[in-house]
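Per reviewer request, we include the raw input and output of the structure prediction for the construct analysed in the revised manuscript.
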Amino acid sequence: MLEVRNIFKTYEGESLLNGISFQLDAGETICLLGASGSGKSTLLRIIAGLEDSNSGSILFNGIDLASTPPHLRDFGLVFQDYALFPHLNVNDNVAFGLRMRRMGQEEIDQRVNASLKLVNLSGFGKRKVTDLSGGEQQRVALARALATRPRLLMFDEPLGALDRSLREDLLNELRTILHQTKIPAIYVTHDQEEAFTIADRVLILHNGMIVREGTPADVWADPQSAFVAGFLGLGNLLDGEVIGTNQFQTEHGIFNVKCGHEHSKGDKVKLLARPFQVRDDANVVSGSVADVIFQQERYKVTFDSGLFVYLGEAPKLGEKLSIRVKVECLA
């Protein structure tokens, strides 16, 4: 399927992509997740053939695409700004790529109708795209990409312009469509919730490199670095010092952590204190309650020390608490 080999890219003398390599399997959806400036959109454009890399190669089914122009790669692209033609109605927007391929009108009609049905827009064909809501316009953009039956779909922050509830609905629909069509896809976003919802595999980019790769569950359970844990907001990041076997001194006290890394006494480490209360861990975070915020059926409780936990019931401000939490060694 798709293979990205050792892609390097500089911009205005600065390194933007630094040896990116990965594979995309048949029917798989991967997400390139990273902050603005991490290089994820540039990487997508290089795969699409819209931008050149300084070195490296893009292969599809073992064939190097270096000499293949974008319109012959047979990749579908969906952007945040929809990129629809405002002077054309829905049918004509969806049919645009098919007409460029000089298909017969009967086949064009069949594909347009099938694509609109797939994105739940049957009956919208004669409407002006300028009369549609943002979510409906993005569905038209998706239908246009699907109509050509691409061998790869690529999404560049496709839901960034939509409000939260609409974004969630469309994201779930998109996941269903990708599973139904079995078209491999690359999804670019800075939003971890989007990434973890839609992706079979997540690739986290930082400073032009893939710093963590795995299934959403694996990445969440084992971030492997302080950067990934912080970027995903997995909990409290602590500076620690090794004082004994599986013992770490921090400004918040001593933590006992079963660690698979090799450390010597005095080594500096990063620890992750997960914010969820547990029963079977000896580590405790304590303090006076400084702030309480309700967040989706739970309360984020911040101590005067700056540490935070999530609880099912709201404590009182100033109340002293001691909560058992899971603590992990990241490096």
